[in-house]
Amino acid sequence: MKYVLEYPSELPAASEEFLRPAVIRDIVAQAEESGFSAVALSEHPAPSLKWRRNGGHNTLDPIAALSYMAGVTTRIRLLTNLYVLPFRTPYLAAKALGSLDIVSGGRLIAGVGAGYLRAEFAALGVDHDRRGELLDEALDAVRRIWSDPETPVAGTDFGAPGPLWLQAPVQRPHPPIWIGGNGAAARRRVVRHGAGWMPIIAGAEMAAAMRTSAIENAEDFGLGVDSLRRALAAAGRDPDAIDIQIVCPHLDFGDRDSVRAAVTTVDDLAKRGATWAVVHVDGSGPAAAAEFVRAFGEAVIATH
Predict the structure, then answer these.
(1) Rounded to a whole number, what is the largest CA-CA distance in the chain?
(2) Deepest in the core among 84, 144, 155, 304, taking most CB within 10 A?
């Protein structure tokens, strides 16, 4: 199992201290030292105030913030969790993500998805009802742009008129693409385009809010993994080559039972196919977050 630090600014109650450059540097450096394999940021360029007041969180542009994190680290990977491809044309997405791969020396994991906040789509001038169509088009286009930058790519609302001069990403043929979503459409996209699947184990109410299918428990998760593996094999792809990310349960290092329960849950999900786990740390302040990261490294990563 590999572990991803969800940068603490993404916690609903996190203070704005987590947006300070020195704090970002210190926490990400601690994560790298503690054995985390990646650090992650989501994308919300224009979230509504209603969303923020109902469990949303502070946001940074993931390309800008992860590029800064790349500059103060040497090994830890940079994960977009998730980058919403329908928000922009494929050429803009390919340029931004590809640039992050270049400046990080090939450390990008491009976690992508369709997005779900209708008001955010409206603010950006994108048709929310087309998000699935736009995601499918972008996945195909971005892969082609990265793999063969000079050859023009065209879609419904964009098109290069001739050969282009674009820098290829460091990772060839392109950075790994992980795809978010719980349902059959997400798994279909993984089979066709992806190197990873990013489901969320959540009940019906939370899943509905995120406009995805419910995965209620570990058993449902295992069934989804089995379905994905069958589809990969049928398509001639190696099921064992696909990464699958889950969320590590909350744990309290002052409570041994809490730590034991979280590790047991992660072990169970690993047996069902999970290979990476996202960790939410103590967001009460920068010092507490850094200490949580250090403790997690010692208690879980180094021994598990």
Answers:
(1) 62
(2) 84
Strands 77-80 and 38-41: parallel
**At which residue do the structure tokens 């601690």 appear?**
30
Q: What ranges in the chain are assigned the alpha helix state H? A: 21-33, 49-53, 62-71, 90-103, 118-124, 131-147, 184-193, 204-209, 218-234, 256-271, 286-296
Mean pLDDT value across the chain: 94
Tell me how far the alpha carbon of residue 151 is from its chain's centroid: 28
Task: For 131-156, write each residue's pLDDT tens digit.
Answer: 999 999 999 999 999 999 999 999 99
What pLDDT score does 252 carry? Answer: 86
What pTM was computed for the model? 0.94
For every residue of 8-25, DSSP letters joined together read GGGSTT--GGGGSHHHHH
Where is 111: in which H helix or E strand?
Answer: strand 108-113
Q: Are strands 243-247 and 77-80 parallel, antiparallel or unpaired?
A: unpaired
Cis peptide before 286 (omega within 30 of 0): no
Q: Which two tokens stand for residue 101?
A: 């791969």
**96 token code pair:** 């931004």
Radius of gyration of the chain (CA): 19
Helices 62-71 and 90-103 sit at what angle, rounded to 10 degrees? 10
pLDDT tens string 54-73:
888 989 999 999 999 999 99
Considering only CA atoms, which of 223, 232, 269, 227 is closest in space to residue 247?
Answer: 269
User: What CA–CA distance (Å, rounded) separates 110 from 198?
Assistant: 11
Residue-level pLDDT at 140: 97
